Amino acid sequence: MSNLTRRTFIRTSTAATGLAFLPAVSWSQVLGANERVNVAAIGTGGMGQTDLASVASHGDTAIVALCDVDRRMLDSSAKRYPEAVSYTDYREMMDKMGDRIDAVIISTPDHMHAPIAMAAMNAGKHVYCQKPLAHSIHECRALREMANSKPGIITQMGTQNTARAMKRRAMRALQEGIVGRVIEIQALTDRAGVPGRPWWPQGQPRPEGSDPVPEFLEWDLWLGVAPVRPYKEGAYAPFKWRGVRDFGVGALGDMACHIVDAPFQSFGLGDPTMVECEPISNSDDQYPLQEIVRMTLPGVSASGGQPIPFTWYDGGLKPKPGQLGMPADLDVPYNVAIIRGEEGTLMVPITGDGTRFYREGKEVATDLPDHPDRNHWHHWIEAIHGKETNYTPFDYAGRVSETLAIGAVASRYPNEKLEWDAKAMKFTNKPEANAYVTRKYRDGWEVENL
Description:
CATH topology of the domain at 18-162 and 380-393: Rossmann fold
Structural class: alpha/beta
Shape: globular
Largest sheet: 10 strands, mixed
Radius of gyration: 21 Å
CATH superfamily of the domain at 18-162 and 380-393: NAD(P)-binding Rossmann-like Domain
Strand content: 15-25%
Number of helices: 13
Helix content: 25-40%
């Protein structure tokens, strides 16, 4: 197997074939190398707490503002960062403190990612935004284009696993040709939940009735750009919104950003030409309880120019390993990407050291290329100072998130093959599906450039 990781002809032709290992990034000229980055955090509970603490742990940052619609989360964070000014409305924060803020962390529910990120970029702020980059296809495209038009702004999507040594080693092995010509890609997750491992509800009808809004929660601000609906205890905030179409992007959008980064980022994949969803327990209000989503991705150099089938499983559904060059009796773990090529199959997990290589149904030992373990959040700060490259800028993040948002739309049309024209940004054989390419924001929540 050692010869498969030493393909110098592939390595030296990487730039010519468009498979550059590190994404292109423009250096910021806004801050000097030794200046502190003044950071505002929007969404400070859950993953937001981790994002905030991780960015704050960099010695060249100062947390100057905190924003959360849940006062419990806001007050808790304010105790840890007493110098920061607290707000419940990010618009008020930007109006009053815009001149003191250099960079923004966005760790809100998915439906608020795009409006906040675009508002921040409109104001010239560097942006770290949790995955997925945005809620709708159009939002993903708009954020990507805006970021590319402003090279001085450093952007990064919050997929921290991408920076870990294991994942980067797998990516480099893929680019060095470990599987040979790529034939297909499959990926799976246990979300939204499997027996004994519940995460959040999907496939259910919209909850009926309403409950009093807790005193600590600004429900109208939580809804933000989304259509108005009554508060229902335990139905949405703070965690179960992920499966609701108005707020989240379901298991596909929530988890695939983490899982498919190895092949998608390595090979520059995206812009499917066809998508089809086979759902189980679908509903108008929530994404399917389980689904298989099939896409056809345009050919790239790694596939010899041939289209690449991509198949996604969630809710506990799994592929047949024997058809992927793996042992037929293998119990495929959840949360992995499987890349099958002419010379073998590489299985890359979301975390840990479980990368495995298979050939003709048997596992084969291999030595993956070296790569250091890095801090994803610190990468962003270092990139702002012009010292580093950031692994998941909006140029990449927008493309992969757009691809997943296309899959989310397909779940509304079970078992129908939808043809997608990426350049025109529309479904060509299902015009009614184009109503979901963009989303209408509530009055008063409009954002320039969206």
